[in-house]
Amino acid sequence: MTTSLPERIGAVVRKRREALGLSQEAFADRIGMHRNYYGAIERGEKTMRLDTFERVAMGLEIEAWRLLKDGAG
Amino acid sequence: MTTSLPERIGAVVRKRREALGLSQEAFADRIGMHRNYYGAIERGEKTMRLDTFERVAMGLEIEAWRLLKDGAG
């Protein structure tokens, strides 16, 4: 079963956030995003716009293109 | 004046499309997108979702992360 783009991106975002030792709530706060919305991103239930994706990447201290490459599957 | 994300992305998408020798109309057809919507993307008037961005990258025969890197400015 191939994973969808949002699921792949959600997984790499989660991995990166956990590596920073941040909870979902702390990270959502860091980037000024509602916690529930951020949780849905990690679960692959939301497809981000590019500007949101850049915001998340910045909060994860990684370039957006690198994060997208990690999630390229 | 710093360019916005959609403007940076629109510029690299246009450059890549022109390098393939395709008109906006032919390229929009290739990826099954309405021509006006695609034109707005190139003009930086639309911020794509990641799935749309992947579709455009595929049509441009380039990995999405590479296209995002080109547009990182």
Could you describe the 3D structure shown?
The structure is a homodimer of 73-residue chains. Chain A is mainly α and 73 residues long. The first copy, chain A, has one domain (5-70): lambda repressor-like DNA-binding domains (434 Repressor (Amino-terminal Domain)). The first copy, chain A, contains 5 helices and no strands. The radius of gyration of chain A is 11 Å and the shape is globular. The mean pLDDT of chain A is 95. At the A-B interface, α1, α4 and α5 of A face α1, α4 and α5 of B.
Oligomer: homodimer
The low-confidence parts of chain A are none
Number of extended strands of chain A: 0
Largest sheet of chain A: none
Structural class label of chain A:
mainly alpha
The CATH topology label of chain A is 434 Repressor (Amino-terminal Domain)
Q: Tell me, what is the CATH class of chain A?
A: Mainly Alpha
The termini of chain A sit apart by 13 Å
Helix content of chain A: 55-70%
Domain HTH cro/C1-type (chains A, B): 13-68
Organism (chains A, B): Thermomonas brevis
Pfam families (chains A, B): HTH_3
GO molecular function (chains A, B): DNA binding
Summarize, please.
Chain A is mostly helical and 73 residues long. The first copy, chain A, has five helices and no strands.
SSE topology:
The structure is a homodimer of 73-residue chains.
Chain A: H1 5-19, H2 24-30, H3 35-42, H4 50-59, H5 64-70
Defining traits:
homodimer, Cro/C1-type_HTH (chains A, B), 5 helices, Lambda_DNA-bd_dom_sf (chains A, B), mainly alpha, 73 residues, 434 Repressor (Amino-terminal Domain)
